[in-house]
Amino acid sequence: MKSILKWLFIIGGVFLVLIIAAVIIIPQFIDVKKYKPIIEQKVVEATGRSFTLGDDIDLSIFPWVGVKLTDLHLGNPTGYKEKDMVSVKNFEVRLKVMPLLSKRIEIKTFVLDSPEIYLEKLKNGAANWEGIGKQKKGKAHKEKKTEKTSTSQELPIKSLLVNNFSITNGQLIYIDQGTDLKKEISDVNLSLEDISLENPIAMSLSARIDGKLVSLKAQLKGNKDSMSLSDGLLELDDSKLIFSASAKEFSKPNLTFDLQLDEIDLDRYLPEPPAKEETSAADGTASSGTGSAAPLKKVKSTEPAKKKTDYGPLRKLVLEGKVKVGKLKAHGAIVENVDVRILAKNGIITIDPLGLNLYQGSVASKIELNVQKSNPRTKVTLDAKGIQAGPLMKDALQKELIEGTLKTNIGLSMTGETPDMIKRTLTGQGEVLFTDGAVIGIDLANAVRNVKSGFGIGEQPAEKPRTDFAELKIPFTAKNGLVNTTEAGLISPLIRVLVTGKINLVKELLDLRVEPKFVATLKGQGDTEQRSGLMVPVLITGSFSEPKIRPDLKGMLDSGIIPDAEGLKQILGTEEGQEEKIESIKEDVKKQIKSLFPGLTN
Q1: Tell me: the pLDDT tens digits for 411-430?
Q2: Distance of alpha carbon 65 from its chain centroid, rounded?
Q3: Most Cβ neighbours (<10 Å): which of 226, 261, 391, 504?
Q4: 3-class secondary structure, 214
Q5: Which residues pair with residue 247 across a beta bridge?
Q6: Cα separation of 262 and 71, whole Å?
Q7: What pLDDT sits at residue 555?
Q8: Residue 207: beta bridge partners?
Q9: Strand pairing class (509-518; 495-504)
Q10: What is the Cα–Cα distance from 352 to 22, expressed in whole angstroms?
Q11: Collapsed DSSP state (helix, strand, coil) of residue 135
């Protein structure tokens, strides 16, 4: 018996030596380069694209099964700018074979050196990544696909070990010929060390996005039940983002994240706004750039009806996230101390708080989106105070429209996802209040006290017109798209303006009355001069696109605003030759009244 075992060990040892020798020796004698045309042909058949390999091919079997390839080139279809869609300078992978039999993957090295990926979309919409590996849709293929989808959702592997995974000096270029858009990610270097399903993975990434330097570091951990990112650090130019995130119950999914960004200038990364075509507000024409003008034509929309949004994924989503930003700049406006918390569960998504500091003031808001039913319901509350409107307008719009300290208190609700549905259901109330400011571009006080200039008799002011005010208040209520205001008004040292009426958001119609009231003196402000002038109530009607602004002549007649002969003497003076004109001016005042306010139409 002992002799039999002895011979079995001897024979087994011989076979083991022979196997080891074969593994070591065979690759030295087999010319793998002669299989290069076969490999290239198989890739061509599988992808439908041209494919070439370099002559430097290395194959190893012991102790690790490995392959090293050089100069890989996967071609583009005809009609594209670049010859290759994908190219790789060097590719190397080494792994153990035996663990694969028990669904365990052990990789020593996986290296991509200088990969270049070129993605291009033509003006006709065709893209070079489309159509790779297309197969005939036969019955057998469909059955095979059905079989695959019916398998268990468990991971196809039991364990994963990778000592080193790296991508060095990578490049990705995306070009859209239709929009003249080009994006480039270059100098991509990615390193993953000690990859496994049980322990955190050290990840390091650096790249340049359109020439801007990016670096990323994080600890990644995951298995078939959950994944998490911790100790995340993303650096982009002068910005630094610290982050963590986790995901579990992938079928929902259940997500958490925490983002803390010190500062970012989004204007560096946002596309330039499209050039606006010059239009004439007076005659509704657009300039062609040659001095001529062509009428603007209304074009009937031919866009297809919008497909109903599927809110199923949002109803299942479970989310808890926090975002803090120290300083953010976008479209010229600067926002500081952003504090956001997002919660989602059972189809209700809540953003509370949504707080920030804005131009010496603060904003506190709450948003609730309910997608439990087919049409989403939204509730918004907004409280703002202490915001300096002038600097905000200058930075955000590059315009001087209004100055003053802004305070708002608004609560609105709406149902639907399209602008039309939102307008039809908009309901709520609020107030917008400006104090100690000015409306830029309008001088109501000058129009009141200098009626002669209104008629083109007096001198026009040289400085940019403005109407200083102590308070500009706009309270409103809204119900199903109909907005009402009864006490909107402006209080200034010389004039009071009251605005009442309705705005129909659904039909886009205006029905407003603007009534100015004159303040006789500026007592208490160093001015005791008696003031007088012609107060002109104004009606604003018509549509949003074609508003009609005209004096309320009926109201003026009923209230006695149009002056008699003695009143006109006081306004126009008693210069020689004026008395003969008083009667004719009185009859003509209805036509001339609109000259007090340039732009008024009948």
Answers
A1: 999 999 888 999 999 999 99
A2: 48
A3: 261
A4: strand
A5: 227, 255
A6: 43
A7: 65
A8: 214
A9: antiparallel
A10: 68
A11: coil
Token output for 210: 């359109």
Torsion (CA) 551, 557, 559, 560 in degrees, nearest 10: 110
Distance from C-alpha of 72 to C-alpha of 57, rounded to nearest angstrom: 11
Locate 520 and state its tokens: 């006789």
Rounded Cα distance between 385 and 435, Å, is 11
Instruction: Tell me whether strands 254-265 and 318-330 are parallel, antiparallel or unpaired.
Output: parallel
Neighbours of 139 (CB within 10 A): 7
Alpha helices (runs of H) in 400-530, residue ranges in sequence order: 419-425, 444-449, 451-454
Model pLDDT for residues 293-320, shown as the tens digit of each residue:
344 444 444 445 567 788 999 999 999 9
Token readout for 296 is 């603007």
Structure tokens at 440: 């830029």
CA distance 450 to 465: 14
Both structure tokens of 522: 């500026």
467 burial via Cβ count (<10 Å: 0-12, 13-18, 19+): buried
Distance separating alpha carbons of residues 589 and 158, to the nearest angstrom: 92
Cα–Cα distance measured from residue 179 to residue 121, given in angstroms and rounded to the nearest whole number: 10
Backbone angles phi, psi at 89, to 5 degrees: -70, -50
Q: Are 547 and 504 in contact (CB under 8 A)?
A: no
32: tokens are 């793998």
pTM of the model: 0.67
Identify whether the C-beta of residue 422 lies closer than 8 Å to the C-beta of residue 404: no
β-pair partners for 171: 116
Break the chain into its structural domains and give their ranges. 21-129+158-196, 359-596
- Read off φ and ψ for residue 37, nearest 5 degrees: -60, -35
Nearest by Cα to 342 from 312, 313, 364, 367: 367
